[in-house]
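Homework help board

Subject: predicted structure for assignment chain

Our instructor gave us this sequence and asked us to write out the predicted structure in token form, then describe one feature. I got the tokens but I'm not sure how to describe them. Can anyone check?
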Amino acid sequence: MAIATIIYISVSVLLTISAGIFFIKTIQSLMNKKQTSAYKQQDQVLFLRPKSNDPLEISNRREEIIAMLERQFAGSPSSDS
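My token output:
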């Protein structure tokens, strides 16, 4: 009976430790993913490159951004169309 108790306690401790490690790794993974996706999302939103000084290119980029925003808002469920 004592041996079964020791085995039960040791298995419980090992499961608790492994669950804690899994939880910590998952949180770290989500934190890294969040930082990476926020950077990529910011990179996707900023179509205008800081080195582009051509007015025609800037105008074309603005038109692309406006068209993209119009498509997004037209497809949103809160639009009153």
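Reply (TA_rk): Your tokens look well-formed. For the description, you could write something like this. The chain has a mean pLDDT of 78. That's the kind of observation they're looking for.
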